[in-house]
Design a protein that fits this description.
Elements (H helix, E strand, L loop, with lengths): L10 E8 L9 H22 L3 H14 L14 E3 L6 E8 L11 E11 L5 E9 L4 H5 L1 E6 L6 E3 L4 E9 L15 E9 L1
Antiparallel strand pairs: 1-2, 1-9, 3-4, 4-8, 5-7, 5-9, 6-8
Helix pairs in contact: 1-2
């Protein structure tokens, strides 16, 4: 009598999300350097006039650092994996979100998301991947997205227990206008597995 194979959904999807953004904001370290220089100047002026420089310098530093609008560029969000219900044929792990996506500039091409896909099913599966961007976002419309599985643009077949690296590359054209400066948009790497 044959041993029944574990049931698995015919299509299984895993989604890894990130939030790339363009550069254009003021870097926090630059702002802090300016704040410290201003504080130093005030300390020198107050030192000549009075002995209470410590309180004034501390108050000025707090005000400068706490000013609204001094946030740095949008940071890349950390990626988690969400699977469709009953998806047991693949496991997505070793996720890497490239930190440079937080400051992508015109002409840059970055591997925004990289993840290892493992076939956890007892038979071969066909794996494909695609990029999903927010169609309403001006920044998403400017990006060129490419997805590779093991260095190939096509789907791959994985035997039981085999792995492949899925990568989502984003390119921002050199001709992009200032309208996307300091903006962000959600980007997802969607990995689909189908039983063979």
């Amino acid at each position: 009598m044959p041993i029944p194979l574990p049931a698995a959904p015919p299509v299984c999807q895993a989604t890894v999300a990130a939030l790339p953004a363009t550069g254009g904001g003021v870097a926090p370290l630059v702002f802090l350097a300016v704040a410290l220089l201003l504080t130093g100047g005030v300390v020198l002026l107050l030192r000549r006039r009075t002995g209470r420089i410590t309180v004034a310098a501390l108050a000025l530093t707090v005000v400068l650092v706490a000013l609204p609008g001094n946030e740095g560029p949008v940071q890349a969000a950390t990626g988690g994996v969400s699977y469709t219900d009953g998806c047991t044929v693949i496991e997505v792990g070793d996720i890497v979100l490239d930190a440079s996506t937080a400051n992508i500039l015109p002409g840059d091409r970055v591997a925004a998301i990289s993840a290892v896909v493992t076939n956890t099913f007892s038979r071969s599966i066909e794996v494909s991947a695609e990029a999903r961007l927010d169609a309403a976002s001006t920044l998403a419309q400017a990006f060129t997205a490419e997805v590779e599985l093991g260095g190939q643009a096509d789907e791959v077949v994985l035997g039981a227990g085999e792995t492949v690296t899925a990568e989502l590359f984003l390119t921002l054209p050199e001709t992009v206008g200032n309208g996307v400066q300091a903006s962000g948009t959600p980007v997802s790497l969607v990995v689909t597995a189908v039983q063979r």
